[in-house]
Amino acid sequence: MRILLIEDERELAEALSVALGKHGIVTDHTMHLADAVELTRQNLYDAILLDRRLPDGEGLSFIPELRRTGKDTPIIVLTALNEPRQRVEGLDLGADDYLGKPFLVEELMARLRAVLRRPPSLAELKIMAGRLVIDPLHLSVTVDATPLDLPRRELLVLSALARRKEKTVLRSTLEAAVYNYEEEIQSNALDAHISRLRKRLIDASAGVTIHNIRGVGYLMKEE
């Protein structure tokens, strides 16, 4: 799962990115509305977390601008402006949820799960491939109902491939599913994740194989 965090408190943004990362969420962060608009043009996000008081304007102005592009990405407003009339204002402008600061990460995760269950989110449904059942919202994988323990990045790679099973997935698409845009990606990092993941899937008799499409990306096939 990949989200966009629009937040001008750098320490809070860094802490949130780390906390969300433990739940298998890749977070792109920006402090500016103008950059947020450009990021949503370049990337597909499962959800957006939006502050209101930003250096270049009122965060709520971002919502109608995004909706005008035809994107219905779920938006949760995270803000200290949490009076009833302020919450009503945010929801009336198109926010899917509104959470006042300070908040618990556990509550934010529960609200994320709630908005992502609403169609047409990519994370709404469990993913099935071979004998695998992947639940992206709860970071769980089973093989014939037996849990398969995977490191976070390998689980993200697996989810991205399984969503597009029997189709070639570009390296850039897989990297976007695993790393945020600020992270420096080593040239062989993705290949290393996939090499380890292949072995785990074979050992677990998962019923899928991952094939290298040279110079393009990877393909998951069901056996």
Automatic annotation (TrEMBL):
Keyword Secreted on entry: no
Pfam families: Response_reg, Trans_reg_C
SUPFAM superfamilies: CheY-like (SSF52172)
Molecular functions per Gene Ontology: DNA binding
Start and end residues of each OmpR/PhoB-type domain: 123-222
CDD domains the record matches: trans_reg_C
Keyword DNA-binding belongs to the record: yes
Domain Response regulatory: 2-116
Sites of 4-aspartylphosphate modification: 51
DNA-binding region location: 123-222
InterPro entries: CheY-like_superfamily (IPR011006), OmpR/PhoB-type_DNA-bd (IPR001867), Sig_transdc_resp-reg_receiver (IPR001789), WalR-like (IPR039420), WH-like_DNA-bd_sf (IPR036388)
Official protein name in the record: DNA-binding response OmpR family regulator
Organism of origin: Rhizobium laguerreae
Organism taxonomic ancestry: Bacteria, Pseudomonadati, Pseudomonadota, Alphaproteobacteria, Hyphomicrobiales
